[in-house]
Amino acid sequence: MVSERKERILRIIVDEYVSKGVPVGSGTIAGRGLGVSPATVRNEMYELEEQGYLTQPHTSAGRIPSDKGYRHYVQALMAAVQPSAVEQRLICHQFHQVEREAEEWTRLAAAILSRMLNSVAIVTLPKPSESRLQRLELVSLQELLVLLVLILREAKVKHQLLALDEAVSEDELSSCARRLNAAYVGLMPSGFPVSSMELTPFEEQVTKATAQIMQAEDQEEYEEPQVDGLRHILSQLEFASSKKVADIVALLEQRSLVKMLLPQVLTGEGLQVVIGGENRYEVMHECSVIVTRYGIPGEVGGAIGVVGPTRMQYDRAIPAVSFLSEVMSDLVNEVYG
Amino acid sequence: MVSERKERILRIIVDEYVSKGVPVGSGTIAGRGLGVSPATVRNEMYELEEQGYLTQPHTSAGRIPSDKGYRHYVQALMAAVQPSAVEQRLICHQFHQVEREAEEWTRLAAAILSRMLNSVAIVTLPKPSESRLQRLELVSLQELLVLLVLILREAKVKHQLLALDEAVSEDELSSCARRLNAAYVGLMPSGFPVSSMELTPFEEQVTKATAQIMQAEDQEEYEEPQVDGLRHILSQLEFASSKKVADIVALLEQRSLVKMLLPQVLTGEGLQVVIGGENRYEVMHECSVIVTRYGIPGEVGGAIGVVGPTRMQYDRAIPAVSFLSEVMSDLVNEVYG
DNA sequence: AGTTAGCACTCTTCCGCCTAGAGTGCTAAT
DNA sequence: ATTAGCACTCTAGGCGGAAGAGTGCTAACT
Q1: Residues 6 or more apart whose Cβ sits within 8 Å of residue A159
Q2: Residues B94, B89: Cα–Cα separation, whole Å
Q3: Burial environment of residue A97 by CB neighbours within 10 A (0 to 12, 13 to 18, 19 or more)
Q4: Any atom of strand D under 7 A from CB of A31?
Q5: pLDDT per residue as tens, chain A (337 positions)
Q6: How many helices (H) and strands (E) does chain B have?
Q7: Is the minimum distance from the CB of A196 to strand D below 7 Å?
Q8: Looking at the partner chain, which of A161, A245, A335 has a beta carbon nearest the beta carbon of B161?
Q9: Chains A and B: how many Cβ contacts under 8 Å?
Q10: Which residue among A162, A246, A335 places its CB closest to the CB of B235?
Q11: What's the 3-state SS for chain A?
Q12: Which residues 306-335 of B are in CB contact (within 8 Å) with A?
C-alpha cells in the first residue's frame, strides 16, 4: 500500500460500499473526483485485491473491502465525523433530565447510541473494582421474613430477603444493624466477619448473606449489560440468513454471553475496534464491535460500545462511542469522583 | 359447526398445521384414524371453509386454520397438555435455588417460559396496587451528595441521588431520617407531607423526592417487563418478511410499548388468549398472545405471558403460562401474603 | 512508463416458459 | 351419505435466453 492514489481509491470504496451496500465498480470510482479513467482505477483495484484489501464477490461485480481493507481504513484513512455541537448538547441535556441514577444513565446511553447509529448498543453499569460496604439496613417484613438492604460505596443498592428460623424483635433487629454497621462499614467483603466479635446466630446469618452478595458483586467484571437496538440488526443486516441473525441475537440477548463477549474484546486500553473475522466467535464474523471503557480507571467503570454489521459507518460510530464514553465518565466522576 | 366429525377434522388440521407448518390436505387427514375417504373430508372441509374456520392459501393447496378456527380449537377442541410432573418439579426447584428476590424470579420465569415454548416470554415485576413507605434511609456519599433509599411495603427498594445546595451534617441526616420515618412510615404517597409538621428545607427536599418516586411507582400499571426469547421469533416465525419481524421486535424491545401492549390484552379476568387478527396492533396480526395475571388480586401482582406466531402450540402454551403464573403467585404469597 | 480507449468475456439477475406434483371440486356410481 | 375417478387449478422449481454490469486484456497514446 504505497501509492497515495491507492489509498484514495480504497477510501472511496469503503465510503461508497458502506453507504450503498453494493459492490463498487471502477466507473463509480472514476466519477469521484480523482481525474483518471476507469481503466486506471481497474489496474489499481487489481493490485489492491492482490494485497488483500479488497475482494470480489464474483468475476463481474465491483469490489468490496475485505476485513483488512476496513482495518486500514479505520486506522489510516478515515476522517472521523464528530457528532455536531447541537447533537452533543442535546445528548448532555437528555442525561441531565433523567433521574440521577446509574441505571438510568446506562439505559439512556444505550438508547442514544442505538438510535444514533442504527445498531445494537451495549452499555454496562458502572462498577467499582472492589465493593465496600457503606451501610447495612434490616427491615422487618413479616414475623420470619427480613429484608436486608446493603448500600455500597458507589451509590449502589442491593437487597435480599432473609428467611428466619425464629422470630427476631424490632429491637434486636436495629441493635444488630447498629452493631454490624459499626463493625463492617467501609470494609470489603474479605474483611468480615471480624474474628474478635461474638455474633448471635441471626447476626451470623446477616453477615453471611452480606459477604455473599458483595463477593458475587466483585466476581463479575461487567455488570448488568443494557442491550438496546436489537430491532436494527434485523432491518439493517443484509446477511439475512435468519439462522445467523438468530444466533447473533441469542448471543446478545443472554447477559451471560455479553459478559463473555466484552472481556475478549476489551483487551487493551482505549477504544477497540474489532472487525469482522477478527472476532473470536464464529457467529460474529460478519459483525464489527466498537467498544471502550468509561469511568475512573482502576476505581469504577464499565464498558460501552456498539455491535453492527462489518459494513458499518466507522467514521460516525467511533466518535459517537467515544463521545458517549466521555459523557458517562463525566457523570461517574460527578458522583463517585 | 354441528357435526362432531367436523370438529375432529378441524382439530386434526390445527394439530397438523401447528406441528408441520404446511397447509393440510384431505389425504393427510383421511389417514388419521377417522375411517372416511379423502373425498368425504373434502366435502366437510368445504363447509368448514364456508363457515370461516379454514382458509386456503390458494386453490390447490391444503387448508389452514383461520383465526376463528384457532379460537374454536382453543375454546372447545384442545386437549391441554400439562407440563409433566418431572418438569413441574424441576421448575419449582429452579425457583428455590435462586436468590429470594422478585427480580430474579421474574427473570427466571421469563427464561423458563421462553425455553419451554420456544417463543418470546414477557413477565413483569410484581407490583403492589398502592405503594406504602416502609422505611426511608439517607446515606451521605459526598459533601453535597446524599443517597435516598426508600424501602416500600412489598420488599421493593428504590433509590435516588440527591444533590444538596448546602452541606448537611451526619447528625442532621440521621435526625431527618428519624423524623421523617416517624411521620411517614406506612403512608401512601398522597399522605405526605403531613401538614402539621414543620420541615427544614432539606427535609422538604427529601419529602418531595420520596413522594415523586412513589407516585411514579404507582402510575405505571405494570413494572419493568422482562422480555426473553426474542431469538426464537427469528428462527420460528415463518413470515420472515424481515420488515415485519423488525417491527415486532421493536414493539417488544421498548419497554414502554410492552406496557401499552399488556393493558389492552389483559382486559378480563383470568388467562387471556388473543389470536392473530384479534390483536389491536396491526403488526401483531400474525401473532398470538397468551397472558394472565399472577399475584394476590387487588394487592400485589404482575403479568406473565408469551407472544408467538399465530401458529402456536396452544395446547402446551396455555397450560405452561398457567402453571408458571401459579408458581409466581405462590412465591408472591410466601413473601407478601 | 503510466494512462487510456476499445472490446471481448464472464457472471449475475431477471424474465418467461414449461413441467411435475399436490390438492381440489365436480360428477356419477355405490 | 359416501366414494372413486378425473379434469382442473395453482405453485414450486428447473431451464434458457437476454440484458446489464464490470472486469481484464491488448494495443494505442502521451
Answers
A1: A147, A148, A149, A150, B101, B151, B155, B157
A2: 9
A3: exposed
A4: no
A5: 779 999 999 999 999 999 999 999 999 999 988 889 999 999 999 999 999 999 999 999 999 999 999 999 999 999 999 999 999 999 999 999 998 889 999 999 999 999 999 999 999 999 998 999 999 999 998 889 999 999 998 889 999 999 999 999 999 999 999 999 999 999 998 888 887 888 999 999 999 999 999 999 999 888 889 999 999 988 776 555 667 888 899 999 888 778 888 887 887 789 999 999 999 889 899 999 999 999 999 889 999 999 999 999 999 999 999 999 999 999 999 887 7
A6: 12, 11
A7: no
A8: A335
A9: 100
A10: A246
A11: CCCHHHHHHHHHHHHHHHHHCCCECHHHHHCCCCCCCHHHHHHHHHHHHHCCCEECCCCCCCEEECHHHHHHHHHHHCCCCCCCHHHHHHHHHHHHHCCCCHHHHHHHHHHHHHHHHCCEEEEEECEECCCCEEEEEEEEEECCEEEEEEEECCCEEEEEEEECCCCCCHHHHHHHHHHHHHHHCCCCHHHCCCCCCCCCHHHHHHHHHHHHHHHHHHHCCCEEEEEECHHHHHHHCCCCCHHHHHHHHHHHHCHHHHHHHHHHHCCCCCCEEEEHHHCCCHHHHHEEEEEEEEEECCCEEEEEEEEEECCCCHHHHHHHHHHHHHHHHHHHHHHHC
A12: 335
> Would you call A230 and B245 a contact, using CB atoms and an 8 Å cutoff?
no
Distance CA B26, CA B16 (A): 12
Whether CB of B47 is under 7 Å from strand C: the answer is no
Per the CB < 8 Å rule, is B249 touching A231?
Answer: yes
Q: Is A36 near strand D, with its CB below 7 A from some atom of it?
A: no
Do residues A115 and A298 touch, judged by C-beta distance below 8 A? no
> Contact, A329 vs A337, CB < 8 A?
no
**Distance in angstroms, CA of B255 to C1' of D22?**
48
* CB-neighbour burial class of residue A73 (10 A; exposed 0-12, middle 13-18, buried 19+): buried
Interface of A with B in 159-218 (CB under 8 A): 159-163
CA atoms of A47 and A64, how far apart (whole Å): 14
A65, A52 Cβ separation under 8 angstroms: no
Q: Is A181 exposed, middle or buried (0-12, 13-18, 19+ CB in 10 A)?
A: middle
Q: Of B100, B135, B229, which is closest to A163 when you measure between CB atoms?
A: B100
Residue B222 forms beta bridges with which residues? none
The dihedral built from the CA positions of residue A247, A252, A257 and A262, taken in this order, carries a sign that is positive
Tell me the residue type at B241.
Answer: S
